[in-house]
């Protein structure tokens, strides 16, 4: 029992503190500054440098000193609370914003269950012949993992809504109301778009969904979500970007008209925590899309004992199990970072939508398309 508890704590540290939060923190630099500067043909942050090794001069380190300076600045800034604000909720809101962004990571699988014995490949999946399988690579292996994600993402809007109300400021309140309206508008399309994948894979367990994507269509084409549900991929990506309030769906922040929206009146580490929660949620979007639509930890033709080309019982290229695990975790991390990069490319490429355009896109375009995709998918699955 104690060993299981320690293992869970170790997985939480590895997933949240060593993967999600560091990448989310670095995106304040790499996504919002360096990537935008390259897209706009600017130099970007390059002045702050560090002298690490004596005699080698001052190294720029890709602007990382700017990221460290931001953290120090937030720590030492004054924590101001507006007159008339609800002090209790104003202090609780940052935790309410960060908590959902962290706990959603509980069901993300970085690799299949670990097999302690011999592995054989049957029907495009790893079978542990002897020994046991251990769930080392996800914090919780829930059969209803996808429902868990939707439940937590629905709760995440409370942080923004209460932040706007508790600040006792008109711009903040408008930002909180916009956040609630945006969540309602895109939550339906987000759920309907992924329902097609649920029909095809027949499971709500995210790890089992990834295992199903290891099957090959016609013996050569991986059955990834983006292959069998291409329309759902784009709808889900857009809806998730709207859920995380990232540009061009940044109406709740609305820098050009409502200053910073729902967190205008937050400063110091409260502001930093709210910002961090948005970036961690953005990284989670990349991980979830990679899991459902890009094969998760799957590498095409790679199984527990090596590479199989076609439905062959023995590996054409045998690999040690530790190498397979490393390749799969590396593939999942690469897919996550790719989707993260794509989100920031869309942010710095597309102009911001007007508020009416955001609502029209959600109700008049995404919703009908997601419904049509679900009906067509159900029809095809019933026939096949």
Number of discrete domains: 1
State the share of residues found in helices, binned by percent. Answer: 55-70%
Rounded radius of gyration (Å): 22 Å
Number of helices: 12
First-residue to last-residue Cα separation = 45 Å
Beta-strand segment tally: 9
Describe the strand arrangement of the main beta sheet, using strand numbers.
7-8-9
Give the overall form. Answer: globular
Mean pLDDT: 84
State the major sheet: 3 strands, antiparallel
User: Which residues form runs of ≥5 with pLDDT under 50?
Assistant: none
DSSP strand content: 5-15%
The secondary structure category is mainly alpha
What is the H-and-E element order? Answer: HHHEEEEHHHHEEHHHEEEHH
What does this protein structure show overall?
The protein is mainly α. It contains 12 helices and 9 strands. Helix 3 packs parallel to helix 10 (268-293), helix 6 packs parallel to helix 12 and helix 10 (268-293) packs across helix 11 (321-349).
Write the layout of secondary structure elements.
Blueprint: H1 2-39, H2 64-76, H3 87-103, E1 114-115, E2 119-122, E3 125-128, E4 133-134, H4 145-155, H5 157-166, H6 170-201, H7 206-212, E5 216-217, E6 221-222, H8 225-228, H9 230-243, H10 268-293, E7 302-303, E8 306-307, E9 317-318, H11 321-349, H12 355-383
